[in-house]
Input
Amino acid sequence: MLTDDERARRDDMAASESAGISAGDQGVATLLAAGRGTHGKTSYESNADVQRWLQEQALEEGGTRGAFTPTFLAHQRDRLWVLSSLRHFYEERLIADVLAVAKSGKEANVYCCAADPATGAEFLAAKVYRPRMFRNLKNDAVYRRGRAQLDERGREVRGPRVWRGANRDTERGRAAQVASWIQYEFQTLRLLYEAGADVPGPIAQIGNAELMEFVGTGTEAAPALREVTLDREEARGVFDRILRNVELALACDRVHGDLSAYNVLYHAGAPVIIDFAQAVDPRYSPEAGDLLARDVERICRHFARYGVEADAAALAADLWERYLRGEV
Output
């Protein structure tokens, strides 16, 4: 019976051979083998799209700061994928260590990182998208129609150029779609932060990882709104502040698209809105009005438990009509 470590080494070797990598180049080989299963079954993480992505995002072995070996990741199943994602931030002297998982989701994990002293912060949050993002983006049509695609330099590309540059039927095209999706989320975060919205401060985005302000106390992440119980007197103020953020985002030509009590943090008595992966630009999205109405309805439904009375349909309609008239 093989131990877990022995299985991992065996699968690393198998993946490196399938990718055409020499046995001596295990630094890259282990990254490419990050998703190998323990029973001879290859998971999605080790398919051609993911291998290509890792190769294109990888830094040269050694770097300028030596090995990046955060102790927290030593026994994590997806440690190699996370290391490949965060090492860029380490090399850029933005983070010094990975301390804990702050939030775990289907498409991405958020890690609490010790910030490099050069940043002036104590902790930062690193959002790392998992390899399954290559698969999940097959169902993103509603959101893709409402946003610009971004090229390798982060510039907006619309119309036929999108499909010539990022054909989803090719490995390079799928990688371009993934990169564009993540860049767009980070640009939305930066846009809203600069407009004064209650969102984490953006720091950097490289490959499949985003670095931002850590919202919490010490290394303890702030809870999601669904995890806290508010005083009835306080609830109305938090509700109104979230709606002001919805209006502010609309003024910035953004609709969150997936807003709920799951992706609003509660910290120091105030809401902090996160997760803009599904955000759309209402200037181009035929579904933006419906997505806005759904966002508002979910927030109203959550706060109804505190006795906050609000007509979600009327609120959303008023916001949308004022947006169309250029009054937000």
Observations:
- The chain has a mean pLDDT of 80.
- The chain has three domains: 8-46, 62-221, 223-324.
